[in-house]
From TrEMBL:
The keyword Iron does not apply. The keyword Thylakoid does not apply. Gene3D superfamilies: Glucose Permease (Domain IIA). This is PTS system glucose-specific EIICBA component. The gene is ptsG_1. Pfam families: PTS_EIIA_1. Keywords: Kinase, Phosphotransferase system, Sugar transport, Transferase, Transport. GO terms for cellular component: cytoplasm. It comes from [Ruminococcus] torques. It comes from the Bacteria. Residues 36-141 form the PTS EIIA type-1 domain.
Length: 166
């Protein structure tokens, strides 16, 4: 009857999505456009790729380094605070370079913050070997996150542009 005597309820707190920012600057493309069937077919999971403008890959958010490819140093696996597992893979077929032109800045088990350096690569060496420098991000446990949103078709700025939300 007299609703102004009733205690007002606080608005429900909106849960903010967990965001992943660009690990490199460059054009963000859908994973289906990657020129490697293992990735473009989503055999390892859904994701996206960046055509890089620089050569140092940074952590896209706070995470734990869960996997390193010690022999080739071309990829790094991260486990995010919300349980999402991502693989950042530099280049197409660059595993064949056996680490030539790649350098890690982290070790397995390291806790990293958004923007921390993960690995560097030499784009000229990748080109000299006849490979592409497309850098792929795969969400390896994406089936556990049906509300995942991947943002492609844009130019991203490293450490600033949101490329995925969970």
């Amino acid at each position: 009857m007299f609703s102004f005597f009733k205690k007002k309820q606080a608005p429900a707190e909106e849960s903010k999505p967990f965001v992943v920012k660009a690990y490199l600057s460059g054009k963000v493309v859908p994973i289906e456009e990657v020129k490697d069937e293992v990735f473009s077919s989503k055999a390892l999971g859904d994701g996206l790729a960046i055509e890089p403008e620089e050569n140092v890959i940074v952590a896209p958010c706070d995470a734990t380094v869960s996997v390193l490819m010690e022999g080739s140093r071309h990829a790094v696996g991260l486990t995010l605070a919300n349980g999402v597992e991502i693989l950042i893979h530099e280049g197409i077929d660059t595993v064949n370079m056996e680490g030539d032109g790649f350098e890690y800045f982290v070790k397995e088990g390291d806790k990293v913050s958004a923007g921390d350096k993960l690995l560097s690569f030499d784009p000229e060496k990748i080109k000299a070997h006849g490979y592409e420098k497309t850098c792929i991000l795969v969400v390896t446990n994406g089936d556990d996150y049906p509300d995942m949103k991947l943002h492609t078709g844009m130019d991203a700025v490293q450490g600033e542009t949101v490329i995925a939300e969970f």
